[in-house]
Write a structure and sequence with these properties.
This protein has 496 residues and is of the alpha/beta class. The chain has helices spanning 30-38, 42-48, 85-100, 121-136, 166-191, 199-212, 223-228, 232-238, 292-306, 352-363, 379-385, 397-410, 421-425, 443-452, 483-495; strands at 2-5, 17-23, 27-28, 59-63, 72-79, 106-110, 155-158, 216-221, 246-252, 262-266, 268-272, 313-322, 333-336, 342-345, 370-375, 390-394, 414-416, 434-435, 460-464, 470-471, 477-478. The two termini are 32 Å apart. The structure holds ligand BES, manganese (II) ion and zinc ion.
Length: 496
């Protein structure tokens, strides 16, 4: 799929189909009006009949109008004339979905955009590509029937942008493509079932990534290496599983980078049964998504390599299964982390923090500028924030705010939760340095507080993506979040 921006008026653009917005009461978008003038008011006369009142997300494909180059016009309902990021996303997704069902090969899209203060030209182009690619995403399913035909759509042009914005628009498209490719890598991995996407498979995919990009180097620590690193918490989680654990290290080195590296850490539980603290069977299948953090690390490393960002970045992925077995850890077991701190495992289902704490300790050897971990860590985060915001916790408020701001610009939102000392005190254990759980209250934050015990002296943020990384129900699948947020964060950071 090719993406371009256009700076001329819509009637001058060459495309099979022009896509224009219709607001409540059949009022045309600004570009729609320009187009309508070209064809002598025929579109407005049609709208006046009231068949297409412009309800948000509705679409209607019309045949050619007089004096138009395009052979079709797609009307897209945009609701109120005041357009938000959310309503724009919904309208654009609907437009792309409708185009994909036709034989249209090229389209010029000129929907009403949110106001400039909400969406500048660069971010407009980047988001438009992200939204389009997300709307065209098809899960690589394992159904035996015939696959539906590929859409005919080959090219989309977005606009009109002022001529002065042509450069930022182009840059936005390049960044949007990288972001969309990263999100696709994440989604494809996370959507795979646990019997296919094993720790070994993730390690293979990391190697494959490095083969595609010269700037990436991959190293995989095997169980013996993990033992040599004294990652007792990580080993405790994997010990009930027949699948060998892997600790994946992906490095992006840029000749232009001078600063200490940024380290991403991703939770890679390829299936979380809960272990001996077994989960309820309802929706347990969704625990195949418990490697979404790991998938996000692979996705974001691809973004960084594709854009050749002038920074050094390391991706760390501890990956294993959490299974019950005769060899599995039991509630009350005490293990020693790589950092030397002892942990009483009161609940074997709080396994994510156990594999992450050893990975966070491993990050220290890079003397990192910043460490960001991503994990489907707690159901409590979903209770607190729902699925609309990722949770952000940090030992550095500036970092948390940078991530939250990136989420706003990328429309991939995150919300900061407080990480004050009291939460860490809830993890008291009678027998070890601390326990891995602290009861139900503030569960997302006590999980963050557990990780915070291993990140003293590091500039660190934790993103709980349990609610945002995938959706359940009829549209069950990975969302590719928070790749868009992180892409924005990295692009901003590369400028400074
Ligand atoms: N992977 C789960 C968290 C999760 C739950 C993600 C629901 C997405 C949806 C994690 O390993 C877990 O089981 N956490 C426990 C922690 C508890 C035992 C303190 C949880 O959230 O119930
Ligand atoms: Mn668990
Ligand atoms: Zn888990």
């Amino acid at each position: 799929m090719q993406f371009e921006i256009f700076t001329s008026g819509l009637p001058q653009v060459q495309a099979d189909c022009v896509v224009i917005g219709v607001h409540e009461h059949g009022e045309l978008s600004a570009s729609g009006k320009a187009l309508d003038r070209r064809c002598g008011g025929a579109i407005a006369r049609f709208l006046k009949r009231g068949d297409f009142p412009g309800r948000l997300g509705e679409t209607l494909l019309l045949p050619a109008f007089p004096r138009l180059k395009a052979s079709r016009v797609l009307l897209v309902g945009q609701g109120a004339t005041e357009v938000s990021r959310r309503s724009w996303r919904k309208a654009l997704s609907a437009a792309v979905g409708a185009l994909a069902k036709t034989r249209v090969a090229s389209a010029a899209v000129a929907l009403t955009r949110p106001a400039n203060r909400e969406l500048d030209d660069y971010t407009y182009a980047r988001s438009a590509v992200e939204i389009t690619r997300a709307a065209l995403y098809r899960v690589n399913d394992l159904k035996s029937g015939k696959k539906p035909a590929e859409p005919a759509l080959q090219k989309i042009k977005f606009g009109p942008l002022p001529t002065s914005a042509a450069r930022s628009g182009k840059r936005g498209i390049a960044h949007g493509l990288a972001s969309a490719n990263g999100a696709k890598i994440m989604r494809d991995l996370a959507n795979l079932p646990g019997n296919v996407c094993t720790p070994t498979y993730l390690a293979e995919q990391a190697h494959a990534l490095a083969e595609r990009h010269a700037s990436l180097k991959v190293k995989v620590l095997e169980e013996a290496d993990i033992r040599a690193e004294k990652m007792g918490c990580f080993l405790a989680v994997t010990q009930g599983s027949e699948q060998p654990p892997k600790f994946i290290v992906i490095e992006h080195k840029s000749p232009k980078a001078s600063r200490a590296p940024l380290v991403f850490v991703g939770k890679g539980i390829t299936f979380d049964t809960g272990g001996i603290s077994l989960k309820d069977p309802g929706a347990m299948d969704e625990m195949k998504f418990d490697m979404s953090g790991a998938a996000a690390v692979l996705g974001i490393m691809n973004v960084i390599a594709e854009l050749a960002l002038p920074m050094n970045v390391v991706g760390l992925v501890p990956t294993c299964e959490n299974m019950p077995s005769g060899r599995a850890i039991k509630p009350g077991d005490i293990v020693t982390s790589a950092a030397g701190l002892t942990v009483e495992i009161l609940n074997t289902d709080a396994e994510g923090r156990l594999i992450l704490c050893d990975a966070l300790h491993y990050a220290r050897r890079y003397k990192p500028h910043t460490v960001i971990d991503m994990a489907t860590l707690t159901g409590a985060c979903v209770i607190a924030l729902g699925v609309h915001h990722s949770g952000v916790m940090a030992n550095d408020d500036g970092l948390a705010q940078e991530l939250v701001a990136a989420g706003v610009r990328a429309d991939d939102r995150a919300w900061q939760l407080p990480l004050t000392d009291e939460y860490g005190e809830q993890l008291k254990s009678n027998f070890a340095d601390f326990a891995n759980v602290a009861g139900r209250d503030g569960g997302a934050i006590t999980a963050g507080a557990f990780l915070a015990k291993f990140t003293k002296g590091l500039r660190w943020a934790h993103m709980d993506i349990a609610g945002s990384a995938y959706v359940g129900g009829a549209a069950k699948g990975s969302t590719g979040r928070p790749i868009a947020l992180l892409t924005d964060y990295l692009v901003q950071r590369a400028r400074r």
